[in-house]
Ferrichrome-iron receptor (Variovorax paradoxus), 697 residues
Amino acid sequence: MACIAGLAMHPVASRAQDALPAVEVSAGETAPGSSLGLDVPNATGSRLGLAPRETPASVSSLGSADIAERNLARAQDVAVRFPGVTEAPAPGNGGTSLVARGFAGHSSVAQLVDGTRLVVASGTVTYPFSTWPFESVEVLRGPASVLFGDGAIGAAVNYITKKPRFDRTEREAFFSLGSFGTRQGGIGLRGPINDTLAYSVYVDAGSSDGFRRFESYDRQNYALALAARPSSALKFTFSFDGGRNDDARYFGTPLLDGVLDSRLRRTNFNVDDSVVKYDDRMWRAKAEYQLGNGIQLRNELYHLASARHWRNAEAYTFNRAGTRVSRSDYIEILHDQEQTGNRFDAIFDGQLGGLKNRFVAGLDWYRTTLLHTNNSPYGGASTVDPFFFAPGRFISPVPTLPGRHSTLETTALFAEDALELAPGWKLVAGLRSDRMRLDNNDLRTGARLSKTYSPVTGRIGAVWTPSDAVSFYGQYGTGTDPLSGALSLPNGGNSFDLTKGRQLEVGAKGSLPAIKGEWTLALYRIEKRNLLSRDASDPRVTQQVGRQSSTGVELAVAAEPLPGWTVDANAALLRARYDDFNEAVGGRAVSRAGNIPVGVPERTANLWTAYRFQPRWQLGIGARYVGARQSNAANTARLPAYTVLDVSLAYEYSRSLDFSLAVKNLTDRDYAVSGTGNVRWLLGAPRTVQLKARARF
């Protein structure tokens, strides 16, 4: 932190020649389709606008053209193509939960829109879901609390939306038809209105009949923005984004004696009047001002509103004879969530002690409220014939009533600095201090509880670039995660603090000019402390003493070995363990130390390769491997590993029109993306075929 402390004691030079040099991107040096982009400035790895090559951390990104080439329509489908990032979706978490570096769920992997953190409500985030308005998707792996606050020990995923352009006009549209009655279409327009105003309009919609009963969906998505540039130094951007999602109501398939019965692949055991609906809306007002040479001021005011409704029978198990399926957990939940915030920062380009320096400091404030309505304690049960299934209706012995109202208010001061110590040497450091107050009002009992958290997180790292072809880095960082989601109190009390994490990471990044290639290598160890654990001498007592760790290596490479042939590949290996963790079983504390954490694969890999075999024809092949995942802390049940293959064929009819035919899950493999070991699996999508036309006009 010396460079930050030192800057506060020295005036910042504002001469233009003292500013950090702009990064020049040469398209000829980077393979098309690369998810590394080592020389492209990145908004997620740092607030300083550093490129991944000069950032002492693991950063990846994928642009809109490559997202379209790979036929990735869902936001999280992009995130899981990066090293070590996988998914753990379920309707209850919005189908958006991710896993990274040995840590699972929304409380450990943050998701953002243009750098604005989406606060997790009861383990749920439901926006964004469509990739159509994205400029790119960026991922910072490892603790990101110093940048984005708590709940980011595993990673932070940032969805960057397309902005209004003053330099040119862009118009595009697409339409697709696919398996199971799937239809999608969208239009995108952006460009200048005059010298002062510019706009962007991206809207899309999709619907499907679904592979199973009750797996149909109907979605609409929009991203609208207007930019005003009164002068060359001042710019305002007003945006309104959101989406309505009448989503699939599939909560998994029960296993018969721990095995998937192929006769049930297309059976959905939910009730006839089931509901999964999300409505998210976000408006933002951003101001950017260049205050002389070397000083930039930025401010963003925003408001996010989310309305969610679930009404489903969510649990299914076979009886011992294997002739009937018992349904339980008839759950109805409604979320009314609002998040209002403001983020201000100032960037200074100058010198510190005669050395080139860039510094940013700011204030981040937001207030989130959640009205949680439910039919707790979630009764209701029924028994059905699995092979002559009649869905029935939702039944609950308990009425659906408001349960609690929670308010989280956070104020944070942050600072980050990049100092060029010597030719080829850069020191990057950051610090963030949060003050968080959570008020929880139980609307049924009248009980009111509050908790204040004051975490301080930071990171410090160095980058050494001995040549244009390679750089080495090392970093130490800290982070925090909530125990049970940002808007709830763990164990119903206010005696527990945030969990704390720390990471040590070293790595290298480099270029392979002969094949227009890039590569990255990272080795890390993360320790997470203060997990809830049962007292070994008295299982009725919960203590915040548990520990969890992961040690891993990630390798990524992107290249164009031959003209027209591109390869983008990555692999991750890790060892994740509970180091100190007791679980209450049958009234006694049982140690789970040495076991693998729930939902964490220790082996993952991704591959995308494309070959332009004719001037207008391109073949693409993709593969994604996810290793086995444990389903409980005892490690007595697990979800099996799987590999999914995709293939696409694209034809460029003209410079303004192209067609593509994509087949997902080419081998039609049954695989579990989440679930409960040998009881119930949430199955991934079967083989699907999609024909798409895309036009630019």
In short: The chain has four helices and 39 strands. The two ends are 51 Å apart (CA to CA). Residues 2-696 form a domain with the Maltoporin; Chain A fold (CATH 2.40.170.20).
